[in-house]
Write a structure and sequence with these properties.
Structural class of chain B: mainly alpha
Strand order of the largest sheet of chain B: 1-2
Shape of chain B: globular
Largest sheet of chain B: 2 strands, antiparallel
Largest sheet of chain A: 7 strands, mixed
Oligomer: heterodimer
CATH topology of the largest domain in chain A: Alkaline Phosphatase, subunit A
Number of strands of chain B: 4
Order of helices and strands of chain B: HHHHHHHHHHHEHEHHHHEEHHHH
Radius of gyration of chain A: 23 Å
Largest interface: A-B, 58 and 56 residues
Shape of chain A: globular
Strand content of chain B: under 5%
Helix content of chain A: 25-40%
Number of helices of chain B: 20
Amino acid sequence: MNIQTQSWLINRRHALKALGSFISLPMLECMVPLRAAEKATAAPKRSAFIYLANGVHSLNYQITTEGKNYQFSRSLKPLEKHREVITPISGLHHPGALSHHHNCISVWLTGGKLGPSDKNTISVDQKMAEITAPHTRYASMEVAITQDSLAWTADGVRLPAMRRCSEIFASLFEEPKGGKLVQRRALRRKGSVLDANLAEVRQLEKKMGSEDKGRMEQYLTSVREAEIRTRRADAWLDTPLPAVSDADRKRTNRDIAATMAGDYFRTVYDLMVLAFQTDVTRVATFSLGGEGDAISIPEIGITESRHQLSHHGGDAGYMEKLTNYDTFAVEQFGYFLTRLSETKDLSGKPLLGSTMALFGSGMSYGHSHGNANLPLVLAGGSDLGLKHGTHLDFNKSAKDFQGYTLGPDGALTTAHYHVCSRPANTDAHMSNLLLLMAQRMGVEIDQFGDSNKVIAI
Amino acid sequence: MHCHPTGSARLGRSTVGSRGGYIFTHSSETLLLNPNAPQMFDDKGNGLFSTVLLDWIEWEGPLVSEAEKSRRVGLVPPDDATPEVVAEHLQRFAERAWRRPVKTVELEQYLQSYRNEREAGEKLADAYRVALQGVMTSRHFIYLVEGDTVAREHLNDAELASRLSYFLWSSMPDDALFAAAKGGTLNGVGLKQEVDRMLADSKTSRFIDDFARQWLQLHRVGMFPPDKKLYPAYDAWLEESMRCEVIEYFRELFAKNLPVDGFIDSDWTMANARLCDFYGLPEPKAGGFQRVSLKPEYRRSGMLTMGAVLGLTSDGTRHRPVHRGVWLSEVILGKTPPPPPANVPAIEPNPATSPKATLRDKLEAHRNNANCAACHAKIDPLGIAWDNYDAIGQWRTHEKVAAGVGTDPLVNPAGEMPDGRAFKDATEFKKRLLEDRDKLARAFIEHLSTYALRRALAFDDQDDLNAIQAEAKKSDYRIKDIVRAVALSELMQKR
């Protein structure tokens, strides 16, 4: 490392000492020298989150049998070959999302509250990124084919999403512009500017009344995060970018029209696999599309947006298309699992063992905005201690649950919609699952969002 | 005119929509087009319609005017400047950036960055750039900082100038406003003169755009794109035209200083050819947005029967009476209804064997739960009044219902206001609203004040709000006069 780079770090430390009184703890963590942190690294742990908007056609999605020998439902059938590495989960919900319609996407990974005076809280992927970021070139990747990302900062600010595959590729693997020296100089200047901003605040803090400290905290967090990013980017300049094979590059570094839904979904999954494989990042979120505008799938005859299909009004054609959409999305998730199991990470082990992948929605019964009994599938992560192979059903364990309402033909009746709208088990919070995932990633917390206990899988 | 759609001369697909922002550029890109959009080409790539294809565009720029150049004088020091001269330049720059007088000592950190860069061998211009960056990442640039380390009740002149300027212009104060603040004349007659000067400036168009968007929740227009089978008339062009109609209408009310009644009722609107076609009005004479007159048989008057408002409160498939009621309550009456309780039972779709029922019928059946009924009895009528307008705002007498047997049911838009006054349809509902114009004006004043102060209003503000209302009432609740009353109010000068 060159001496000039270090000089602004030293300045910054002085500034920090003086600022200690109102900078929260994570700052201290960022002071751990990068290389030192790297040495202590255990085997990498990874997480991916995939969001399907507007719920599912729950009558065709719900698995009604429990335990080891559960029967796959029609929509989940494509995952049957992955039975040993997945756990379908029923009966969870976010209390904060109930009756909040499509806003459920905003709290899917946060377990936060929604309301005029509520601020969203940190999403679990970002909580994970706090501890994985020191080891990877980029803290996390956020992809959304339409509308917003799933990731939120501790300040309740939503992170921007990337959409185009070539843009995602460039963000992960493109050489820095102008070469290393130019980059380093630019980063050093940026660091110096941020130092000056912090020093200015330090002068002010002495005179400042407590009422202004809320905004000040927000400003400081932004400056602090910019500093961390600057410093990490500087350190990573000396590490060459990972090699990406021509075949991988050709497959993923291109733009795909939104009309080619399958290709689009699979290519984003490929990019996530590539990112994990090369250890560029260990945390990824992927929204297949927002609640208002998830794309249609012309290749299987669906020209309506997913939101339109979800408000099927009982129309048999729409319900069939919605089921086909669900099945299609599940199948592409199966593709992701296959790729993870076939691809080895830098230490030569299959990615699936070190990667937890959560697929699901913040809604269950879209037609009437039912936000209970969320459709969720947790997969992978056996190296992190997850044991799969059963259907985990929190409806069944609820005291007053009368069993699934099956008609004479063995299919679920519309009474099932009620299970999807009011939680059968009010203690079964989805945050309990997010807490489990955070803990398995190595995040040292015993509470996340509105969790009330940790789920055992 | 400030909105883009100008009528017949443009290609339908050339709008830069709020979603995606895709611009149709060349026939070789047909692959990228949405399959649901009207087909423009046959399978050999030949155009199906007579359209203008833009194949080449050229532009020149940036064109920097002399006036623009003069704004930069004195901000960048010459290459041979002494440290003192550099500091003077940075101070001038900071006073603009932070919108207030700045003491050199406040810039010490940024001057130190400059010196560090110079010592490291950087050129003056490059080192100075680092100091400029610092000034612009400072909290004083990013935030509107009000108040001091010692508590005080009122804003100082520089703070008031910024507050006024971001309220009415969405930007920093200009030289004259800075001068008034510096010269201590931003009070009494001086303040009135400045506010009148600001209200007459074309920069108020930013207030029109920005306030209307936030107040009327226009970000929701097109959030749930309408079902293309149910609403084939809807496209990006119409959507943009609808959004513009509301803003242009508000601009006209403001420019002509018309009374608040104009929000609810009028015999004119602002429309382009696309909207006239959609509403069934005669084709307008000129291109672009223009004032067109309305007759009762067109079934449009005021903002509440505009496509944008009726559409933004729908979900793309169906009209949503409850959403419409909540919107009306928040925007027009200034009351936010409480959020729904968590355990709302599901509404099952209409069984295919039962008679077709309107959404209103289903809502009423749903309301036998006493917990729900208390709030919904107040919210729903405010939305049901607009049941004659579908999810994209088209007039109808029957509601199209997908599932069920029999004919589509007749719409029933009759109901009662929360205080019991009855109305039989949207037209009567508007009359009921206008009978209580104090309430309309009050809600508007509160929305304006929230926007101007950039904070939620509190109980402590009631006296100041009453004073604004009394002042506005003197001029018959004319819209520009209301904005003026807010700008000149005691509330505006308080921290």
